[in-house]
Target: DUF3593 domain-containing protein
Amino acid sequence: MISKETLFILSLFPYLGFLWFISRIKQMPRLALYGFYCTLVFVGVTIPAGIYAQLHYNQSLANVDWLHGSAEFFLTLANILIVLGFRQAVIKETRE
Model:
């Protein structure tokens, strides 16, 4: 059986491939692309935050509210950028 850590690491490769492909699409809204990249920032922040929660509080990240909320901020930011980017693209397309 594959551990959850191994599965998590393996899941990054398809996402990196996704980012590689969408970054080459000229019609891809830049703001939305930044949002998709910001998701990697979320992952990069969540991993050390989870380790810190485990070492300092002996709890999982989900049980340390201030730390969990701080990490989730980056996911929220990523989602906002994606939505605003596609919203701008739809508005631009309807005006043309």
